[in-house]
């Protein structure tokens, strides 16, 4: 434990003193504030002169505004935070000849990989919590609604899911940092995997669904059975993408009006705002039950990825030359 804490403090200092951390943090905070400002002003105009519905505060995170929502922004660009924090975690030490000095110290070898992963997770958590608090404060000022206990609880769960999701990409980048000796190669490999899961999995799911269950327009309309089969195939294949798992889970948690992770009918924030006057939102516990498979999958792939990274690092030969 002493070795882990020592390396952990050293890694935290390196992160906070690096220009990379400052730029990433500033970018996330800046985009979050811009999205919240646009969404908050739109919501303020929409509910002007009306009784404000319950759970209005959560729309700050799920409404798309003119560009995209904050949840969509973290789902798409959040992996880059994990990649930038970990793509040179090990091979940087190899290049600078400090890795052999670390393993020669009276500490356990696994303390190195554990401390590097934990420091990255801590930095990710700090950035997420600070951004959510900043957005919440700005949202309270814009729409004049103080979040209740249920809304705060949903935001806490959202932060935890986001932390696990970005930690998965941190583990991926550290794994490539262990496998490849070049920092450029590990960065490119991590980015290539991010591009594959972000774009090609969804595209492949659409192509396969069109081939297996094509939906054609006939004189009598669309075949409902074939449409459902098409959407089911596309949903199953696209679920192999961590981004889809994260997006479905967080949107369901932050939107109490959603009764399922996905549906054939998509509604915008104003439609959901109108429906909230005539429907009762789901309790938090029921929303959690809906996304339990997604949560288990995100936790599993995060720990599996770090487990592989741990195993590969412990089996590698570290020369003292």
Question: Summary?
Answer:
Helices cover 74% and strands 1% of the residues. The protein has 321 residues and is mostly helical. The protein has a two-stranded antiparallel ribbon.
Please describe what this structure looks like.
With 321 residues, this protein is mainly alpha-helical. The protein has one domain (2-315). Helices cover 74% and strands 1% of the residues. It has a two-stranded antiparallel ribbon. Strand 1 (217-218) and strand 2 form a beta hairpin. Helix 8 runs antiparallel to helix 11 and helix 8 (149-179) runs parallel beside helix 13. The longest helix has 34 residues, at 110-143. It starts with a helix and ends in a 6-residue tail after the last helix.
| Unreliable residue runs | none
Shape: globular
Query: What topology, given as strand order, has the largest sheet?
Result: 1-2
The SS-based structural class is mainly alpha
Amino-to-carboxy terminus distance: 28 Å
Calculate the mean pLDDT score and round it.
81
* Helicity range: over 70%
Strand content: under 5%
Count of DSSP E strands?
2
Order of helices and strands, N to C? HHHHHHHHHEEHHHH
User: Gyration radius, to the nearest Å?
Assistant: 22 Å
Number of domains: 1
* Main beta-sheet strand count, sense and barrel state: 2 strands, antiparallel
Helical segment count: 13
Set down the secondary structure blueprint.
Blueprint: H1 2-17, H2 19-46, H3 59-62, H4 70-86, H5 91-95, H6 99-103, H7 110-143, H8 149-179, H9 183-212, E1 217-218, E2 221-222, H10 224-238, H11 242-254, H12 269-275, H13 284-315
Helix pairs in contact: 1-7, 2-4, 2-7, 4-7, 4-8, 4-9, 4-11, 7-8, 7-13, 8-9, 8-11, 8-13, 9-10, 11-13
